[in-house]
Amino acid sequence: MGDQQRPGMGDEEMAYDQLVGDDISSELSSNRTALSLFRTEMSSDRTLMSVIRTSLSLIGFGFTIFSFFHMLKQDFLAANVAENAPARFGGALVGLGVVLLLLGMINHVRSVLQLRHRRDRLFELGLIRHVSRFRVSTVMIVAIALLAIGLLAIVAIAFREGPF
């Protein structure tokens, strides 16, 4: 196992036949560190999934309350329900779900950026290989889609129209 790089390998990556620190112990430690960074990234995705589940529940429940009482008020409870009570309560729940989702997304992005910075620093010090970049998070794509749906639900509640 020499210090030579394979043909086609740039300075940004170490060849697989080159040991980190020219020592098997350092190589194993480097692998554990890289796997730890990957596990931390997956943990951040799981945290965002938890936020998505909670936000989805709030958005769905808020819109359901609005729709249910809006229809019920038209048919049966015209005199017993305040004019905007269902819209206010349902809108508050949907708004809470959207705010929670936004905060979760911001937290996720900050965590991933910190991880990237730490990984890049470890690479600069020659402590880990730089072979894998963090992937695009499909969980973040789902969060963006849910955010759009939540915003559409707020518009539908506020103006009592829309695709819902």
UniProtKB/TrEMBL annotation:
<feature type="domain" description="DUF202">
    <location>
        <begin position="39"/>
        <end position="112"/>
    </location>
</feature>
<dbReference type="GO" id="GO:0012505">
    <property type="term" value="C:endomembrane system"/>
</dbReference>
<dbReference type="InterPro" id="IPR003807">
    <property type="entry name" value="DUF202"/>
</dbReference>
<keyword id="KW-0472">Membrane</keyword>
<dbReference type="Pfam" id="PF02656">
    <property type="entry name" value="DUF202"/>
</dbReference>
<keyword id="KW-1133">Transmembrane helix</keyword>
<feature type="transmembrane region" description="Helical">
    <location>
        <begin position="134"/>
        <end position="159"/>
    </location>
</feature>
<keyword id="KW-0812">Transmembrane</keyword>
<feature type="transmembrane region" description="Helical">
    <location>
        <begin position="92"/>
        <end position="113"/>
    </location>
</feature>
<protein>
    <submittedName>
        <fullName>Putative membrane protein</fullName>
    </submittedName>
</protein>
<feature type="transmembrane region" description="Helical">
    <location>
        <begin position="51"/>
        <end position="72"/>
    </location>
</feature>
